[in-house]
Every structure is written in structure tokens, then in C-alpha cells.
Amino acid sequence: MLVAQPTTQRSQALALLQRRGMARLAEFNAAGITAATVSRMERAGDIVRITRGLYQLPDAPLDAQQSVAEVARLVPKGVICLASALAFHGLTDHMPPKNWIAIGRKDWRPRLTYPPIHVVRFSEELLRRGVETQHIAGTLVPVFGVAKTVADLFRYRRTVGDALAIEGLRNALRRRKATPAEIAREAEAGGIWPVMEPYLMALTSDA
After folding, report:
1. Which of 171, 86, 158, 83 is nearest to 119 (CA)?
2. pLDDT, tens digit, for every residue of 119-149?
3. Concatenated DSSP letters for 79-93?
């Protein structure tokens, strides 16, 4: 009679990465996989370390949004926002040099040397609003939707610049990624409607 062999830590680690695309050392530990096992697998070439505490399979497919996925894994409470969300949705040709991520008012501020990040703080209500879960580089990434992103760009226009906010609004409307009503609703929720209204009116009247 054959007896089933217990699952090894190595096979558990590989299965975890196949499911999630990337994994933090803390996630390995939570699954019962020790740091020593992770180190042995890295030395053997079974896994690769992307940055401190973050790993993936060596044959994982490359993705243009790889760094966004990496940030999402390293900052699990964060949401991809502003310029990075706009670029993800294909509404700007500008690729931000840093990954923009929103966290709560009281959340621990991440200190990452790589990938480079720009952290902004949102109220808990606005952090939960308009979030979409996207599949990027084999992992699930929370990203603000188009209408919410456009409204946020106007809320943070002094940080990201008026030009990017207007570009996001114009492209969202022209490419029909969000309706005027959806954008207005998010602007109202974010308390930025009085500022955005004349821009939205002008762009919709030209349509």
C-alpha cells in the first residue's frame, strides 16, 4: 500500500507563487515555509528575489506594469492611485518615475528603496471608494477606477499638476472610459466638484 508523502515546504512555496505571482517572506512564513527554505530555494535558482522580502518564480512573465504589482505586494493595505492609476488605465503617455500609492491616514508609511514609490494619504472612506482589483504580472492589484482616479487627480492637482488632471479628464471622456455622471459623482464624493465642474462642462460641450 502506497502512503502519500507529506507536501514539502519547497512544493508549498512553488504552489504559493504559482497562485499569487509574487509573495512576501511574511506570506511564506504564514504558510509554514521557513526563511531557511526560502534562502535555499533562492540559492538553487528555484525562486528569485525581486527586492528585499519579495519573491517570484524565475520564469514569471514580464509585464509592463511589473513595478506596480511589486508595490501592491509590498504595501498590502495600499491602493494604486493618481498618475500610476491613470497610466494603468491607458489614459496618459506619461509614465511616472515613481509608483503612486494611497494609504490610510493612520497606516504605517512604507519605506521602500525599490520599487520607488510616492505615498499619499486618503481618508478611510475615500481609500475604500472606487477600488477595482486588477490582475497584473500574475498578482491581484487594487487600483482606483477611472472616474475615481480623475477626481483624485483634481484633488491632488497641486501635487500632480493641473496638466495631468486635465489630460486624465479629457482622455477619460474621449475614450469613453467613464461617463460625465460617473466622474461628477466621484468629484462630489471627494469634495472637488466646484473645481472640476467648469472643466467637465467645457469638455462635454465640445464633444
Report:
1. 83
2. 999 999 999 999 999 988 778 899 999 999 9
3. EE-HHHHHHHTT--S
